[in-house]
Fold:
Amino acid sequence: MNTRAFYPEEIIFASTQACNLHCPHCFVSRSPLQLKVKDAVKFLDSCKNTSIYKIGFSGGEPFLYLDFLLNLIEESIKKEFCFDQIMTNGDWWKTEEELIEVLKKIYDAGYDGKIGLSYDSFHGQSFERIKTFASAVNKIFGEESLNVQTVIDESLTKEKSDTLERQLEILAEEYAADIYILPRTYQAEDERGWKSSRWFKEDYCQGPGQILFVHASGDIAPCCGFANENPALFIGNIKRDDFNSVMKKAEANPMIEVCYKKGLLSQAKKLKKAGEKFPGRGCTDDICTFCDYLCKKK
Structure:
């Protein structure tokens, strides 16, 4: 595959903006907004026999919209797509009986992808409840079915940091979870994102990109990075567009041209050379922070 082109391989449905938690590092707006199942199914149907081959789910908290999950799992199987993961905070359930019942419904619907768990100091979950969740996932989906994503909190004391590290070790050792540790990202106007002495490494958005990220509004962005909340990155809406029209809009979108062909780093250096005054120390090592900056500038 040509790495300097937009060639999406996955759809991530962020089916709802509703969430049971309010995390300070999350940029998703909280509201009751939900995708309609019929719109998602119609769009999914248009993606058959294209570059798209796998499906994932995000939010908000996707388990708060169970009907969508069950319907889209069924439709994805019918259309012979593979599954990536369902990203969850693992803390949406009220009783262990409810947790087991819901996970069993997902399993019985035919879901065989990973369960992605967001767990770090920002979420504020009880670790006992997280262990209960991880145990239930293992029991129903089998070992090695759990991914854990944790965002680094540099403000933690050494004691709290050590505690979190031990908890992640427990999830890895006792529940066979794969652990992914991610740096915290900041929006363009936040000077904490501009403390680096050097620019980010260019990858033409192969990291968070090559995805059709469907927001709860139906708007489609080309990546799962937080900058995908910007309308400058939108390349269609599942309420009115099919896969082919989305790709045509992507081809005409100047931000897609920058992200996937010209490179965001070249734009950063071009603006710097022209005298652009960036926040903080004037450089960011986070490609998404700069993408957010450029989207808002446009």
Observations:
- Strands lie at 10-14, 54-58, 82-88, 114-118, 146-151, 178-182, 211-214, 220-221.
- DSSP finds nine helices and eight strands in the chain.
- The CA atoms of residues 56 and 157 lie 35 Å apart.
- The mean pLDDT is 94.
